[in-house]
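chain below, 185 aa
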Amino acid sequence: MRSVTKSPAVFRPDGSVDFLALFPHIDEDTLSAILNHDLPAAELYKLDTRRITESQWNLVDLEDSTVEVRSVPSAREIYRDLDSLIVPLNTYFSILCIHGLSNGQPPTLPSHFFKYNSHLIKISSKYEWSAVLLYHFAFFARRCNDMLLGKYAGWEKIDVDLMEELLVQHRKYPDVEETKGSRRR
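prediction:
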């Protein structure tokens, strides 16, 4: 069996993980919120290196000697599509995996997150994106409550009640022209 070499840049002398070294693009408060399971789902964008400058939306803009306060965009503007959600969500799950596995969670921990990502991909193809986003925010909040109790398996469960409440009435319907064209074949 090969020995695993721990990178000194990622591990502290006591053997714990240095998340700031491992994820240098994420600020300490955000990392703390993730590890304490109180990062709101709407703030996942802070984990996406493609959008890092946008985490400063609420700053004052001084251009041409005028003061302009930039407003924070809505969640629908931030998360326009599945990609804009999945990329930072994967970083979030990576942090949870490293933390959980190094603190006694079972080796199956990552599979819970993979199953949720697959579920998101499936429902985003069947339901309107705005409804999927609301579903995700509600599901995410429920899972954070579970994780406070050390329970991570809820990420792989399909929340049928939540789907009925937030998704079912927002099903995507095939384009009428598409449907007509497929009948001719």
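The chain has one domain: 19-184. The CA atoms of residues 65 and 71 lie 19 Å apart.
thats it, cya
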